[in-house]
Amino acid sequence: MSEQQSATVPASPQKALAGKYLTFLLGKESYGIGVLRVREIIRMQETTSIPQLPPFVKGVINLRGKVIPVIDLRVKFNLPQVEVTERTCIVVVQVNMGGGKSAWMGLVVDAVEEVAQIGQGEIEDTPDFGMKLSTNYILGMAKIKGVVKTLLDIDQVVAAETIELISQALPA
Amino acid sequence: MQGLLGKLATEIVMAEPGSDNGMLPILDFVSKLRDESAGHPEAANFHLAAKDMADGMMAIVEALRLFTAEDLDYLGKTLAQLNELAAKPDAPYVPIKQGGTPAAPQIKPADGDKTPPADAEGEPALLLNLESDAELLREFINESQEHLDNIEQGVLVLEDNPADADTLNSIFRAFHTFKGGAGFLNLVPIKELAHQLESLLDMARQHKLEITSPIIELILQGGDTLKRFIGEIEPQVSGKKPVEAIVIPTSVLKNKVKAVIEGGPVAAENAVQPVQKGEPAPAAAKEEGAVTKTVVKQSGGAVVKVDTQKLDAVVDMVGELVIAESLVMQDPSIRNLESRQLLRNLAQLRRITNELQRVAMSMRMVPVRATFQKMTRIVRDLAVKLGKEAQLTMSGEDTELDRTIVEEISDPLMHMIRNAVDHGIEMPDARKQAGKSGQGTIHLQAFHEGGNIVIQIKDDGAGLNKERIRARAVEKGLVSSEETLTDQEIYLQIFAPGFSTATVVTDVSGRGVGMDVVRRNIEKLRGKVEIESELGKGSTFSIYLPLTLAIIEGLIVKVGEERYIIPTLTIRESFRPTAGMISTVHERGEMVNVRGRLIPLLRLHEFFGVTPKTTEATDSIVVVVESGRECRCVLVDQLVGKQEVVIKSLGETFKANRALAGAAILGDGRVGLILDSSTLVKLKADKHLTV
Questions:
Q1: Cα gap B230→B298, rounded to integer Å
Q2: Topology match between the domains B367-546 and B551-690
Q3: Which pLDDT band, with edges at 50, 70 and 90, does A14 fall under?
Q4: Which chain B residues contact residue A167 at CB under 8 A?
Q5: Domain count, chain A
Q6: Which of A62, B75, B308, B632 has its CA at a distance of 20 to 30 angstroms from the CA of residue A21?
Q7: What is the CATH number of domain B551-690?
Q8: Whether B316 and A65 lie within 8 Å, measured CB to CB
Q9: pTM, 2 dp
């Protein structure tokens, strides 16, 4: 699968965070991911679970003949599990795997909101939460119409840590 | 001829010192004049003059320099002389001395092996201009591969049938295209070498030169040298190597070829004698049979090169189409409709999708012909080297296999062919003593058998010596001396690492490394090898390969709600165990008694951490999987059925999970995981209990 998806994707934005973001909901919280990374949005479907993986990897699905892994963001962010609703969907994103490779992954979210243009002025640096919350996958916080949205660095959310965890979880 | 002289005159008049304009046309015209005048006794002097002029011109071109005033003076004088000789054929020919050019044309055939002057100045180096030419170079390399293959194949045909016009033409064309491409990209050494070889072939094509074995050798050497160039250029173009000047000696070869072209008949005749004197009759007979003999066939039809990723995407989509189709067909609301028209249309839809699927699958398939033909050369070279006589015959070259398999099988096949020549075929004397013809035959064939492709290498050599192999295996500690082994098991020992019964280690084989690699490569392709052999009569190696790597037949099993696929090839049997069959060892590992053989039991639900329907072994099914010589009993809830599935990679994310060989889309569109039997078998027996 990775061969098919080795096309280059834009590198993680470092400073210039302004741009279009797809925003989605997990419970009451709103999050955003760079729209250029989003490949498509599909409705929730049955996943095939892969044994011996960390719990936030829900399994794999068939995306028109391609097998892609699906990450449950609720589990990943330690939020309580909820029932799957009509609005639950899978956001398929292209993730940089390092070494010039990239792969497609699905993210389970409660609901997709909109694509919003977020200006540099609306973005604030990640506040320091102290040691309790790892913020390396948060690009910044955006305030749109009084609502705070957490902008996620998708590569950090899924790629690095996940891969590491997956390989650790497997029998040698 | 007058027309040519006129054109030549124009070119020479237009030529200027300090430029190379017209250099190649002049050479071309002079060569044509020389060739056309050949064989006309009344124009003998004209021919001599033209020949000398062509040589002189060649020397100028060869020197890779621009025209000098002396060159033009020389050309002018020789042209005047040519005109005179054309008008008065009887006029005496006085060679005109060529000023300021190297003495290259004086090399006589006999000097061919000595270091020619060009060597002293160093070989012309080849430097690529990647910035502007990268794309063109890539194309050039791609095409070259084909031309090189054509040359090699053609030469081998020529060996049997030196006068085959089609083949001569095809080799000529290959060199010609090579020259054109190299000239365009300014790859001077390649262009020049190809040019010389082209001229050589051109002479042969016009029956001015007889193809003899030294000449064939020369053409092969030329092809090999060009191949070396390509081999050097390729990594530079693809960025695997830094760009640097490529120096591959060509001048010795070039001069040899030139010597043959110039010395023409003399050199050829000398060389012909040993070949033709020995057996004039068979040579003639061969020519007779030439028409029926297989000649390199150009595969008909236009060809488009397509990115394999696109092909894979098509296969993916077609797979989805089939699934979507069956979902529609089985939809209850459609099944309840009683419309004949609808049923007919649906049936038509199914036919189309089936055909589409078949075509999509066949797109990755290529015939094994090219790979087979490569072997001819190997047998030929090796037989000469070892002083043996061997020929390779083949059949079923049109059998199609997945492209990846065809590529991967090339190396193992080469090894086995080498082994067949080296160990299989005996020396001619020994063969005659055994009452066989002095020439050994290796037959290579490909055919379908069941769902597999079989590639068979059959030699009529010495056969495998069971006792010797066994003794050697015992000596190496591979088997114990008491063990009873079937013939097949004994033969397969030759694939063990480090195994070799060859008494002498040669550079060809005998190190016992090869066969081990052969087996691993074949197993990687999910294939297997079988050997049949009769001492003194020969051996047959059969390689069984799947048609494609993209599809496997799998047994779908269910554990709890999860479905897994086990490749059918690795399943020995499956059954519902009785309580008495299962025993525990040290209260940790469970064993199943399968007809007296104790095989460790692996509970899939425990290993994968899924909730099964039942943990009671007697309510479940045991599937015995094997890999190599090891077996394992895998406990699953139930068997769902057998199905051919398209293998999908799980991608980078899950590559570390070696228990899974991949995933497949099942009939309902969901993903099923394919288990890797070789990993299951190697798991520590009590792993799932102690971890």
A1: 23
A2: no
A3: very low
A4: 656
A5: 1
A6: A62
A7: 2.30.30.40
A8: yes
A9: 0.53
